[in-house]
Amino acid sequence: MPHTSPPRAWAEVDLGALKHNLHVIRRSAGGAHIMPVVKAGAYGHGLEPVARCLDREGIVFFGVANVGEARRISQSGCRTKPYILGPAFPEEREEIVLNNWRCFMSTLEEGDHYNALARLYGKTLPIHISVDVGMGRGGLLADQIPTLIDRIPTWHNLYIEGIGAHLPCADENRATTERNIYLFEKAVQAISAHCPLPYRHLCSSAGILDYKVPSANLVRPGIILYGYSPVDTPLGRELKPALVLKSRLTLVRTLPENHGISYGQEFTTKSPTRVATVGIGYADGYMRILHKKGIRVYYNGVFCPVLGRITMDQIMIDVSQVSDAQPGDAVEIMGEHVTIPEIARMAETIPWEILTAIGPRIPRFYSE
Question: Residue 81 is part of which domain span?
């Protein structure tokens, strides 16, 4: 008979919250097409379940980081095509052509190669031009656009389906962002005089909530899809976080006065203390730096401080205020009471990193 064990830590994902956030995004986007960004395991929420949840919500593409993620989308049963946001290695491009996946083209050499592959297989590949309006991560520069315009008529097996770029600081610098938008508009104007560009996209989460791009008709929501707004706007405040991270008490003991806890003995009890061990650690994405920032967990209506250093698989918490603490009890690590933005501030990082750091040994459980 097979043996089973309850998970020591797990994430609960509310798919209904994702759909709610998608509706909020639609209102902010004003009728634009939607490309939900599901790269990095749907920001830690689980790639395939999230994609299947959103597949029939009237979206045009799924934004992914690379060919491996595109392959997973295609194998998940979704009808929506993946859109590869990062550059592909030359040896990966054949698979893109054969599957008719969407991708950015950042160089003229890429365009030549994709065209040659599409010709080889008797296909016409839809492709999007990437322009660099200030991010510095990829895309054609402004002085390369005239050469691009001359090259497009020679690409008989490419269909220039769209144009896109990325805003580097839409949540930080308004003047720079307005300049980025201006450069994007110039690129769209120049290229669209020679091909129609059915999809034009610039805005990810902060841009969607806080800017208008005259020519754009597609948006790429990332962090806002999962319930977190990088800017303070009325619509941003309507978002619902979709993930709660929990763990269990594995051991409950009373430790005597002057007893050290965890590596380095940075914490020592000042009096007899009821201490519980909890089955989560930095190998699960619970960042080690948090123990120096006063991090707490929420258990049975009480905030319980983490004692000493976070270890690879376990933490220790003070449960002196919980009279009936028992091994197996559930503890909220991140969620409604200990929020992910709060944890990000403590860790001196951003919610994106907190979510995507949640490790693969954490099972995800889904509900609507």
Answer: 15-238
